[in-house]
Design a protein that fits this description.
This protein has one domain: Cytochrome p450, CATH 1.10.630.10. About 50% of the residues lie in helices and about 10% in strands. It contains 18 helices and 12 strands. Bound molecules: protoporphyrin IX containing FE. The site of protoporphyrin IX containing FE (HEM) has 24 residues, from helix 14 and helix 18.
Length: about 425
Amino acid sequence: MTNAAINQVVDYRADLKPRPHLAEVDIFDVAEVELDAHPHNYIARMRERSDVWRRTVSAVNREIGVYTLFSHDKCTQLLTHPEVCQFYTQLLMWRGVPVGPLQNLFVNGMPTVDGTVHRRRRKPLAGTFTMPVIKRLQPDIRRFVRDHLTPYLARGEMNVATEFAKTMPPRLLCSIIGIPEEDVDYFVGLARQAAVGLTLFPLEQMGDIDAAAAALMGYVERLLDRQRTHGQSDFLRQYLQSASAVDPELTPAETYVQLIDLMLASAETTRMTITNAISLLLADRRQWDLLSQDALFIGGAVNETLRYEPSVGTCPRFTLADIELGDERIPANSIVSASLLGALRDPALFADPQVFNITRTDFQRKHLVFGGGAHRCLGESLAWIEVFETLSAFAELTPNIRLRDGPATCTGLSGIRQVSDCHVIF
Ligand code: HEM
């Protein structure tokens, strides 16, 4: 399977302008900004009509079907369907950016390609973040999380979103990868800037994003050169060995980009989940008390936060042929998004789906918040344990914690979502 089919039907050079009407909605007369502000309300209303939301948008001088799936079952089917593919590189081309450092990250990345190329790029990292590996690291992760929280205890207050959830996860990942302490701020800062390239950013920001993407590539190249000569990181040693063992061997650019992708895929997703978890639990004190008194509820709180406010709104795909998802036939050359927001509040699966309840037991064995199929999240075990250890640390070290200004708000219908500040007092 290749992405060639997309290029056959779309000449991206024909239209280099952004298309504002891509954002228009025809089922309800509601602006994208309104959908982003109250996504759950709109999905609940749309679901009353259908679990597939159809739109046709005019893009690149042609009509493209855009479908959004709200049912858990259809989303699962889409993500494992053999006749769909990723289209990030094409998306950037449609927006008028056929080449450049950001496009270079996409072209050489793991989330952007399918089939054998994808498998080759994923393989060298596949064994590094499995649950058994992360379980072995759990005592170190516990220490890391607590070390990060402790300095704030004396201060008596904290903005969880910006002071803990934004800084702890990328620092932890750097320490697992083996990025030297003195480089962490530089690397994380660049990754944060480049990650804007994963959104539908205003094209005026292209220069800054490209500069960050180019600097990241340069940094990882130097990091791996140092590792080859006098490296101390077990993770990087193993990664380099695995990258040269796949057939054909990963190119230098491919080797650098998979490491960068880890940071791009993890920082905001984990930040949002940690912030939402603390905020949702403190907003319903009984559930916080339950968890504080009995650590057995911490796992349920992690799963429920991920269900109730998933940090990734949609997983989009492009259809390479006509496909059938249950009773729905979707034509070839359409964009179809699995709405994780919709799927994770699907009343067919979850009792009282609009209620945040850490004692619920109706979870699937594989949580759909991490996607499905070949592109299922590589870092799910790390993310899950990070959030688990964070809740455990806050419950133990800050027994009197409360929200200062009310709960955080989580917005966004698609892509990586946004979360507001979350001030707490200890
Ligand atoms: C709560 C935190 C996280 C959530 C909710 C999350 C969610 C997801 C989802 C939904 C996908 C699939 C996207 C798609 O199929 O279109 C994905 C892919 C990915 N995630 Fe995560 N993620 C999280 C944390 C992490 C962490 C901590 C890492 C790395 C250490 C990571 C690395 C990746 C990578 C590399 C991919 C691409 C996999 C591929 O294309 O084969 N994620 N993630």
